[in-house]
Structures are given as C-alpha cells and as structure tokens.
C-alpha cells in the first residue's frame, strides 16, 4: 500500500487520484488559516519554489478540527492563502484528520508514521514526508518548521 492508493477531493469537489503524484516526493500537511502556526505557509511556499523542479510536491489539506482555526469554505481558505502567503502548491478540500470521519489518507499516514504520543494528530501543521514510491518516511510535529526539514527533503530528492 502507498499514498498512491488514495483519492482526495480538489477545492472544486472533484476526485483526484494521488497516483497523479507518482514518482514525486510529497509533503502532506494539515493546515489552518487562523492558527499560531499559519505563518509556516511562508516556509512551505519557499520549499515549494526551491524544490518543485526537483520533484517536490506539497499537498495542503485544511482542517478545522483544532479550535475551529480553519473557518470558511475551501475557496475562502484558498483565497486567504494566495493573497497573504502567495502559495502556489495544491490545496484540497477541507478534511478531518482524526476520529471516525478522518480522511482515509490521514488514517493511513498516521498508521505508517505514528507520533511520539500516539497516532492522533495533535494540531494543525503536522507534516508527513513521503518518498517517491509513495511510502511515508517521516512525521513532523506542528512546531517543526518547513526550514527544519530541508535536509530530509534533499535526501529523498
């Protein structure tokens, strides 16, 4: 099994297979627009600009499960991120990452890379690094900045 076995919904509500990203290094992140970690969008965009041509894709999944810090529609969230942080990487439909309604992709990521305190995601901006075969190889806490994972990304590229 790999991340390529999953489909996600685009901001427009269309199903997209993650097979479309086969052969890429992926950084999968659950995000929020009104969170103390929201400024990490700047670092994520910098990673994307630096490594996209080498095969990095960042997949952004807004999540409102933590203190309702991702209010609004997917379109409103996207507009905020583009206007405030100039993001150019793919954003997907708002999802849940924990509980019975957790998106299957995140259930898989958590199974493959449990956190230090268990499988559940503790907050927004938890990041999962996935190798070119679609295998999750590392999980980063929300406090870990995008800049702090540069070396791990470079090893996979």
Shape: globular
Helical percentage: 25-40%
Report how far apart the termini are: 21 Å
Percent strand: 15-25%
Spans where pLDDT lies below 50 across 5 or more residues: none
**Helix and strand pattern:** EEEHEHHEEH
pLDDT averaged over residues: 94
Number of DSSP E strands: 6
Class from secondary-structure proportions:
alpha+beta
* Main beta sheet strand tally, sense and closure: 4 strands, mixed
CATH structural class: Alpha Beta
The CATH architecture: 3-Layer(aba) Sandwich
Written overview of the protein:
The protein has 157 residues and is of the alpha+beta class. The protein has a single domain, classed as Glutaredoxin (3-Layer(aba) Sandwich). It has helices at residues 40-51, 74-85, 104-112, 150-156; strands spanning 7-9, 15-17, 25-31, 56-62, 127-130, 136-140. Strands 4-3-5-6 form a 4-stranded mixed beta sheet, sandwiched between helices. A two-stranded antiparallel sheet has the order 1-2. The longest helix is centred in the N-terminal third of the chain and has 12 residues, at 40-51.
